């Protein structure tokens, strides 16, 4: 995912950029509204995160200008302004979501993922197409899984996690992303449920095979790849 962060607080911008980068995303940061608007117009971004109070052009006018030019990229406002009126104005300007400071990165990431899913829904054919990686196969329609021709029985959440991994091969999925996708949590419940689920899934799809597919990147997340 390619993200544009328009934020004049370098500490916040660095915090957000680091969080997304650890998940394998690419983040461009800019500290004023004029340069942010220019980069948004010239670049091809999957998501734009905008502060309201910016040097030069303010964040709301950046969003208005982009929407007026026909831009459909998802946009999230980050702002210290917390009143209902401020949130309503931000959404009416054309942003897709509004998050007040201070905020948690896990919530920002969860909201970003939700916006991207709505912006790029899978086609009916793509949703039901058989998923394959190496000798691992999952049929979303029949709810079956096999590896090297051997049937593997999975519990519903194990199946949902494997399907998520197979739709994102080679991409590191953080615990927050998995929580948001598999459990539909928009917050971190501070438990080890993700680790336990990954451990159960790994035991079923990797334990009896020489080539391991499900890998842990300590402190970052999990990825389906050939070693």
UniProtKB/TrEMBL annotation:
Cross-referenced SMART domains: REC, Trans_reg_C
Keywords: DNA-binding, Phosphoprotein, Transcription, Transcription regulation, Two-component regulatory system
Keyword DNA-binding in record: yes
Superkingdom to which the source organism belongs: Bacteria
Pfam families: Response_reg, Trans_reg_C
Record-linked InterPro entries: CheY-like_superfamily, OmpR/PhoB-type_DNA-bd, Sig_transdc_resp-reg_C-effctor, Sig_transdc_resp-reg_receiver, WalR-like, WH-like_DNA-bd_sf
MF GO annotations: phosphorelay response regulator activity; transcription cis-regulatory region binding
Annotated Gene3D superfamilies: 3.40.50.2300, 6.10.250.690, Winged helix-like DNA-binding domain superfamily/Winged helix DNA-binding domain (1.10.10.10)
Response regulatory domain segment(s): 2-116
DNA-binding region listed in the record: 128-226
Domain OmpR/PhoB-type: 128-226
An annotated GO BP: regulation of DNA-templated transcription
GO annotation, cellular component aspect: cytosol; protein-DNA complex
PTM annotation (4-aspartylphosphate): residues: 51
Entry protein name: DNA-binding response regulator
Source organism (scientific name): Motiliproteus coralliicola
